[in-house]
Amino acid sequence: MHTREEILAAFSRLLDVQDELREKCPWDHKQTNESLRPHTIEEVYELCDAIMSDDPKEIQKEMGDVMEHLVFYSIIAREKGLFDMGDVLTKEAEKLIFRHPHIYGSQTAANAEEVSQIWEQVKQKEKDGNKTVLSGVPSSLPSLIKAYRIQDKARNVGFDWDEREDVWKKVFEEIGELKAELEKGDKENSEKELGDVIFSIVNAARLYHLNPDTALEKTNRKFISRFGYIERKAREAGRDIKDLTLREMDELWEEAKKVKSEE
């Protein structure tokens, strides 16, 4: 591991390299916040993929790519006379200190839940803070993550179930309403009710300390792996997967489940 001095030197080197690229590289020179934004989103998702794969080398690599983008945005801001990386880091340190009065002030917090409640309360008091409890949830967040964050923020100000077991009545109620609309053939209302079902399941996941986005991504990866097994076995048999019967695919699916459980 590196010392604090070595880490600071490495960060300084990154700043120097990015400054030089901004000046001398034609691609870097023409970039704007708007042109970088889609690349940044891609880099963050690649970091998320590395984290889900629990691959330290890839996590390190993708963290570097995300860090490079943050440095790039600070350079663009500095050129406009708005702020620089020093302002970014100073502001963030000050914000963290302000939002942790149980560490840097007189408040106390016995557990993580109390810390979260303090965090939301303090954010409401910040000069540049959010005007409402839910205004701090980015509108561009993926819907599943946004639902979790909305519910979590509401919980931090006391809007939550008294007993988490009570949420299941709501989940089954929403499923019943969806089923009723589907039977009517009302697509618009069915879509609304489907949204309510998903929202209620996200709520249940939160109450049981499960992350629905992580859970769904693990299922996505599991499905991709098992379906890939079916495709591979079809190729090995000299057949196209489209020519397999549903029964044959089901049998290969069960094989895939056993293979993965034995690995």
Outline:
The protein is an all-alpha fold. Helix content is 75%, strand content 0%.
What does this structure look like?
The chain is an all-alpha fold and 263 residues long. 75% of the residues lie in helices and 0% in strands. It is built from twelve helices and no strands. The protein has helices spanning 4-24, 26-30, 33-53, 56-79, 85-98, 101-104, 112-125, 143-156, 167-184, 187-207, 212-236, 246-262. The radius of gyration is 25 Å and the shape is extended.
Approximate strand percentage: under 5%
SSE-based structural type: mainly alpha
Distance linking N and C termini: 33 Å
Major β-sheet annotation: none
Provide the low-confidence segments as ranges. none
What is the overall number of helices?
12
What portion of residues is helical?
A: over 70%
**Form type:** extended
Strand segment tally: 0
**Overall average residue pLDDT:** 92
Oligomer: single chain
- Strand-and-helix sequence, N→C? HHHHHHHHHHHH
Instruction: Determine Rg (CA atoms, Å).
Output: 25 Å
